[in-house]
Amino acid sequence: MTAICLVGIGKIAVDQHVPAINGSDAWELAATVSRAGTVDGVPAYTDFEQMLAERPDVNVISLCLPPVPRYGYAAKAIAAGRHVMLEKPPGATLAEVHALADMAKAAGVTLYTTWHSRMAEGVAPAKAWLADKEITAAHISWKEDVRRWHPGQNWVFEPGGMGVFDPGSNALSIITEILPMPIHLRSAELFYPSNCDTPIAAQMQWTQNVTGDFDWRQEGPQSWDITVETTQATLNLHDGGARLVIDGVEAVVGPRAEYPALYARMAELVEQGQSEVDLSPMLHVADALTLGKRVMLEPFVL
Ligand code: NAP
Fold this sequence. Notes:
The chain has nine helices and 15 strands. The longest helix is centred in the C-terminal third of the chain and has 15 residues. The relative contact order is 0.17. The protein starts with a strand and ends in a 5-residue tail after the last strand. It folds into two domains: about 110 residues, Rossmann fold (3-Layer(aba) Sandwich); about 150 residues, Dihydrodipicolinate Reductase, domain 2. The mean pLDDT is about 95. A nine-stranded mixed β-sheet has the order 14-13-12-11-7-10-9-8-15. Strands 3-2-1-4-5-6 form a six-stranded parallel β-sheet, sandwiched between helices. Strand 5, helix 4 and strand 6 form a beta-alpha-beta unit. The protein is α/β, with parallel strands linked by helices. The site of NADP nicotinamide-adenine-dinucleotide phosphate has 22 residues, from helix 1 and helix 3. The site of NADP nicotinamide-adenine-dinucleotide phosphate (NAP) has 22 residues, from helix 1 and helix 3.
């Protein structure tokens, strides 16, 4: 078993990382670092450098912090010769993740930019089915209630929090995985509450007739859907990629096992001495923030 340390014991660490690690024979949760959060029975540190100094047995660090503080922790972990797994989105900027990739390469350690939605059950078969199809259009509809999923997480509306692109990057991680051709952004409208530094909604138009509607104000039914039209049939991914429907026929309904799959992939990368750094979902976020027209809204209270 490989000893791993989880950093940032908050919502996603508790909901997904701890169960995925505990459910695997490959990993032992050997330490946590968090200012307030702990995991029962696991040695808890509040100081990352102290953990690195006192626990040479821990050779993999999984960073579950929000994107802005993540770079500093990742750089220290790599400098201390540890392998690093990054929650999505992998950083606050593209350049800082490129810098981490260079550092990891120089240090001979693994860096893994995880995109959990790519591990949803319908994604790999969708990619395989689309590989030889002629795509005529695609649409992302990613609409959820930020108050329901991110209560009290004010960082999502602060610089680097990415606003609606925090969940939206999940959709972008799927579309960049399944489409057999590259796309690039042509225009976008970004909707900013006047008291927020990040958008609460976005409408995006890419090349190849690909569009996206992202909204964090959705009450009632939530939608995490992608539709791809081809000259042969229409492919639909629902529930964030867990359900795949082709030509109206349900093809895959997967168990929710995205995080166990991420940890299995990390074990493989460490074993093979490789890194996996894919910034393509984040590139589209950066392009939207570069090219998007800003529309101002009333203040929004989380
Ligand atoms: P969160 O609960 O707000 O934050 C995780 C933990 O990080 C906090 O409990 C906090 O622990 C620590 N932290 C927060 N700000 C920090 C700072 N400035 N410096 C150092 N530590 C800080 O966030 P989350 O929902 O778990 O999300 C974390 C990451 O996971 C995000 O990138 C998000 O996109 C991704 N993610 C979230 C979800 C979800 O459903 N929430 C799903 C998939 C992926 P301490 O105060 O104890 O230090």
